[in-house]
């Protein structure tokens, strides 16, 4: 049974914990380095990336998370979590940092403000049918991907909204709020692959 942590500084922590538990993972909430050290994978939730960034520094979590990513810990980020995984961000607030690890450029709030949130059905080849009902809430967009970054999902106009590279997975949207479990399943497969 894989042990998966959800970074619990801010954001939709419960929703992720619920999906992971439903899929059979042993879930823990991670706020301290000692808690991070006990998990086989980590989810970075949706929320507000600049707040999670600040809190991660206040809690002494930034370096441990960066080190864990460097060491190959599987990490799945949704929305704010994807921003935190990106090596480069556009339109961050002043001084905003990311953990990095994912060789992408992400634009924060790429679709506008809260009122510009939207939902769309996406065909995602790596998951197969049926399509994913994707919810975008002040969502980021992946504007550029480096070599070795797989584009898992695009909007009808080709803009990239889900990526995977090595042990890192990121989506602009929130599978955890729609009962969509296949991204978390994919993530747990990545965790299992690293354990075996
Ligand atoms: N706009 C938020 C940020 O910059 C992300 C929104 C979300 O996670 N739903 O972090």
UniProtKB/TrEMBL annotation:
Lineage: superkingdom: Bacteria
InterPro entries: Class_I_gatase-like, PdxT/SNO, PdxT/SNO_CS
TM helices/strands, residue ranges: none
GO terms (BP aspect): L-glutamine catabolic process; pyridoxal phosphate biosynthetic process; pyridoxine metabolic process
Reactions catalysed, as given in the entry: L-glutamine + H2O = L-glutamate + NH4(+); aldehydo-D-ribose 5-phosphate + D-glyceraldehyde 3-phosphate + L-glutamine = pyridoxal 5'-phosphate + L-glutamate + phosphate + 3 H2O + H(+)
GO MF annotation terms: glutaminase activity; pyridoxal 5'-phosphate synthase (glutamine hydrolysing) activity
Pfam families on file: SNO (PF01174)
Record-listed E.C. numbers: 4.3.3.6, 3.5.1.2
Single GO cellular component term: cytosol
Keywords per UniProt: Glutamine amidotransferase, Hydrolase, Lyase, Pyridoxal phosphate
Active site: residue positions: 79 (nucleophile), 174 (charge relay system), 176 (charge relay system)
Chain sites annotated for binding L-glutamine: 47-49, 108, 137-138
SUPFAM superfamilies: Class I glutamine amidotransferase-like
Pathway assignment: Cofactor biosynthesis; pyridoxal 5'-phosphate biosynthesis
Entries under PANTHER family matching the protein: PYRIDOXAL 5'-PHOSPHATE SYNTHASE SUBUNIT SNO, PYRIDOXAL 5'-PHOSPHATE SYNTHASE SUBUNIT SNO1-RELATED
Subunit composition and interactions: In the presence of PdxS, forms a dodecamer of heterodimers. Only shows activity in the heterodimer.
Role according to the record: Catalyzes the hydrolysis of glutamine to glutamate and ammonia as part of the biosynthesis of pyridoxal 5'-phosphate. The resulting ammonia molecule is channeled to the active site of PdxS.
Family note: Belongs to the glutaminase PdxT/SNO family.
Record-given protein name: Pyridoxal 5'-phosphate synthase subunit PdxT
Source organism: Microbacterium allomyrinae
Gene from which this protein is expressed: pdxT
């Amino acid at each position: 049974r894989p042990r998966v942590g959800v970074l619990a500084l801010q954001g939709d922590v419960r929703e992720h914990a619920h999906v992971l538990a439903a899929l059979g993972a042993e879930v823990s909430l991670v706020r301290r380095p000692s808690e991070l050290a006990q998990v086989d994978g980590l989810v970075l939730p949706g929320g507000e990336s600049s707040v999670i960034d600040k809190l991660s520094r206040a809690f002494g979590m930034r370096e441990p998370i960066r080190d864990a990513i460097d060491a190959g810990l599987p990490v799945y980020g949704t929305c704010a979590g994807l921003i935190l995984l990106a090596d480069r961000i556009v339109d961050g607030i002043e001084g905003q940092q990311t953990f990095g690890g994912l060789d992408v450029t992400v634009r924060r709030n790429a679709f506008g403000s809260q009122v510009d949130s939207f939902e769309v059905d996406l065909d995602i080849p790596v998951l197969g049918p049926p399509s994913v009902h994707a919810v975008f809430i002040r969502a980021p967009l992946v504007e550029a991907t480096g070599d070795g970054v797989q584009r898992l999902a695009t909007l009808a106009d080709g803009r990239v909204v889900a990526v995977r590279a090595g042990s890192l997975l990121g989506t602009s949207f929130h599978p955890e709020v729609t009962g969509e479990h296949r991204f978390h399943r994919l993530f747990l497969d990545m965790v299992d692959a690293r354990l075996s």
